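Worked example

This section walks through a single chain of length 411. The input is the sequence exactly as stored; nothing has been trimmed or padded.
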Amino acid sequence: MDERHAVSRRRFVGGVATAMGALGLKPSVDLWAQGGAQGGAQGGQGASADSARTRRGRTTPEEYDAFAKLANNENPYGPPDSVLEAMTKAFKYANRYGYPDGNITEEIAKHHGVKSENILLGAGSGEILDVVGLTFLEGANKKVVGVEPSYSQVYQQATSIKAAAITIPLLQDYRQDIPAMIRATKTHYRDVGFIYLCNPNNPTGRTVSKKEVKQLLDGIPEDIPVLIDEAYHHFVEDRDYATSIPYVLEERPVIVTRTFSKISALAGMRLGYAVAPRELIQRMRPHVTGTVNAVVKWGGVAALKDVESQTKVRRVTLELRKKTTSELQGLGFSVIPSEANFFMVHIRRPVQPVIEEFRKKGVLVGRPFPPMLEHLRVSVGSPDEMDRFSKAFKEIVPSTKASTESAKHHH
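Given that input, the structure is written out below as tokens.
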């Protein structure tokens, strides 16, 4: 039994070995052996990606593995060894209901300096966003106020429960228009269930400063909840930004969501949470599904403690983002300043056909984000994935500098 578990664990972690090398992480010797073999196999599968033009559901595992995956703002390196070991040990609870869970709620509370009553777990922060909609919109004929584009799941969920969204355009520099959000909330006060603020915003990567968050909270009626989505918090360098969790300690009606999907590389395992005043958590709790599994709870506890791995992921991600965006600017394309593990480049042509062209070349990039239909969102992947993106970009999107020089020459 022990030997079988050991083999299964090696297979489990083998696929991340090559990527972990880019971070300077130190997995065991047998992990490197597994990873080297798998990395070589994947390298030879690039051609098969060309045939994977249908929706993801029809893509074979081999085709999926061969893609450069820059579409969903994931962590390309996989969970660190500390998290994999914690999750592997937790498989012994796979057949149990009332299992020890590593005190995940208490550990998250301690991490943020709040009480356990201020924490609500969800199967990814996406579930928490849905729970907020169900709690504050459903059956009350209420609306959510937010900007467009932002993380559209919030607005889609409002529509699905027969509620609605009041959406506000971004400013010319692609920041969120806080004064307009305040005005819209006051104008529609009786109809507003909550305000949504994604910070940094997805898909632009732009932040809302701590002064602007305070401006928003002080400028709206004090009984309106504000949902602040901090999924990309760990990648921010902007000194004018700050987490909004301290407002929870002040008992302001703020719901901050966080996820283990990005910096901790647990997107496929589904773990996120809300930090909010006790009264709001109690209102939200009946709507959670309770589907967070034993394995990821232990993984989450280990991830919170592995600050070293998070620091390495952050460093490499930011370096690659800056390198790639500088290259694009050098080709004559404008890039929206991002504080996240993705960026948006203005390609000056409709983005949908370009997305398809990238797919044909084995590179998955972000979907269209109306109304910004000439902007391409690109997640920051591994060094190899970013090289593949840069090569494909030069083949698919003509350099504006080249066309400018050509025009000069003809004149």
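What to look for: The chain has a mean pLDDT of 87.
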